[in-house]
Amino acid sequence: MGSAKKSSAASAKDRRDRIEEMRRAERARARRGRIAVISVSTVVVAALIGVGAWAVTKSKDDAGKDDAKAAGASGRFSYDKEGVGTWSGKLGRTHVTKKVAYPMNPPVGGDHNPVWMNCNGDVYDKAIPNENAVHALEHGSVWVTYNDKAADADVKALTAKVKQTPYSLMSPVQDQKDPVMLSAWGHQRTVKSASDPAVAKFFATYVQGKQTPEPGAACTGGLSK
């Protein structure tokens, strides 16, 4: 009789041990499942973050391209009785490192390179980047431009005038519509020759004139060639 009780107790203990072992195995499987789910979720979240970051960056880049193309694109010149054109559209002033598609040539404003073209009476014998020249206009300079149809005597005389005038610069622009043109921020005109009285008047009006977005800003320490 005692032997039967002992056998029964042993059997019960064995059953409890097996049940506990099964529970431990089940808990272990559950833990492994949770770890697997967490690992997969982490990978998915990381992937989504990466895609989101790429999308934001691409959006910013695309916006920058759009801004660069749209700088001052909506507008036109309205000319007064003396022949000075004033740009009617809003001229952007964002610093960009890309090329800008300006709607006028030479440009009279718009988004531009962070570095200005030196304009302390600087004369350049080769074409200069529009984006740097526009920054010089923002500082209140007058930009004298000419093409190969300009008379040598006019180029020489204008060179001398620019060299004597702080906040001015000069360079060739071969594809401009007239032989000699004068530009300031938001303003532009053609002159017939270096001796045209309009030259002196344009300089007097627009060198550090009231159109200047950043009066007194530097015309040295920028790009020199």
From TrEMBL:
Low complexity bias: start-end ranges: 1-11
Pfam families from the UniProt entry: DUF3105
Sequence ranges of Basic and acidic residues compositional bias: 12-25
Keywords of this entry: Membrane, Transmembrane, Transmembrane helix
Transmembrane residue ranges: 33-56
Stretch list, region Disordered: 1-25
Keyword NADP: no
Name of the molecule in the record: DUF3105 domain-containing protein
Species, as recorded: Streptomyces kunmingensis
